[in-house]
TrEMBL record:
Its EC number is 3.2.2.6. GO terms for biological process: signal transduction. Keywords: Hydrolase, NAD. This is ADP-ribosyl cyclase/cyclic ADP-ribose hydrolase. PROSITE patterns: TIR. It comes from Rhododendron griersonianum. SMART domains: TIR.
Amino acid sequence: MDVSRAEGCSSSSIPISPQWVYDVFVSFRGANTRKKFTSHLFVALEDNGFRTFRDDKELERGEFISDGLLKAIEGSRISLIVFSKDYVGSRWCLDELMKIMDCRETFKQIVVPIFYDVVPSDVRKHMGVLQDAFANHKKRLREEPNGKVEKWRAALTKAVNLSGRHLLNDGYFPRPF
């Protein structure tokens, strides 16, 4: 893909939608939700005919994980972002989030936030564990000149202000999105 289009660097370039490989990309923190909510989500999507990207099945052995994930995001028509308690603690999740929001702007990708066992207003305000996670990132990346933490915060703010779903970890999941 032309880097100038992907990063929006050229005002004269016209974004061209990628050829969709997947219907849905799900961004989630594996430690929090892989064997719980997201495994059920994948089954429901696949049972209803959606082609989903699954990192544990789709990434080719020997491929750099980050490259494969970024290509999968670009090749997906829809991205679901499962915000959980430790989502923001993961630099990989935040990099995925930035890419998803870039694809939303560039390719008009549909993005739906899902607040899983977190209070949406806490995520919107970057409160509680999110505040601590960003403080830790800022401490670890303080010498990074490109303001990565601020870019992550901006992507998070854009994503959480989209219309989405709020699900509590009480074993009950309402019917489809």
